[in-house]
């Protein structure tokens, strides 16, 4: 295990204190640009947004990429992974590190976190991009990769530990702890009724892969519940920010820069 220090620079990012824990984050782009926070999911890190950062910075955004405890370069913390604790840290990160209203772009359970922040702290959010996330277990398909994780498939575990072992200050021996905590989380959360987000006023783009883990019907239910939602399905995709940045990036950037949507009403 390698101790980390607040303010220490590693791999282009720096360690900051958030809600009593030390996490790694990257910040880049125009200091006067609109803050845009990219939220990764479980078993992931800031690196999953590698195909987005350059385009987002070139578009004039101020890009922030925080890594959760136990993910990427961030040391783990005691206790379970829950949406409540992730929400708490994300809110504190927005308040103390970003320091102003921001766009939130979340992928998988990071998308759920983005929507939770928009619901609980609308004062911190400009717009939300909700990418391939499900709000409750009825919203996801049976997915081969998830099933391999749940069955603790050895090859899958080896694949997941590669990035952890290369970047985690906790060392390779800690991966088993992270894996077990993650497994407990994905078997119990999220379980939010879609109707609970009907009060979210932030303009939200719901983006789904047509071959992803989330049922398109569930995504439509989310879109219909949100008062200011737009909807996009990218064809032939599963992990679209990685597979199809040429489609995903312009879609997201146009949404973040656009005026409110017009509404067509029949005469």
Describe the structure in your own words.
This protein has a single domain, classed as Rossmann fold, CATH 3.40.50.1820. The protein has a 9-stranded mixed sheet, with helices on both faces. α2 crosses α3 (about 110-120). About 40% of the residues are buried. It is about 35% helix and about 20% strand. α7 links the parallel β8 and β9 (about 230-235). It has about 270 residues and is α/β, with parallel strands linked by helices.
Helix count equals: 9
Percent of residues in helical segments? 25-40%
Intertermini distance: 67 Å
CATH superfamily: Alpha/Beta hydrolase fold, catalytic domain
As for the CATH topology, it is Rossmann fold
Outline the biggest β-sheet: 9 strands, mixed
Short description:
The protein is of the alpha/beta class and 267 residues long.
State the main characteristics.
267 residues; alpha/beta; Rossmann fold; 9-stranded mixed β-sheet; 9 helices; 9 strands; hydrolase; AB_hydrolase_sf
Question: What topology emerges from the helices and strands here?
Answer:
Blueprint lengths: L8 E2 L2 E6 L2 E9 L5 E5 L13 H6 L3 E5 L16 H16 L3 E6 L1 H12 L4 E7 L12 H7 L3 H14 L7 H12 L17 E6 L6 H10 L3 E6 L5 H4 L1 H13 L10
Parallel strand pairs: 4-5, 4-6, 6-7, 7-8, 8-9
Antiparallel strand pairs: 1-2, 2-3, 3-5
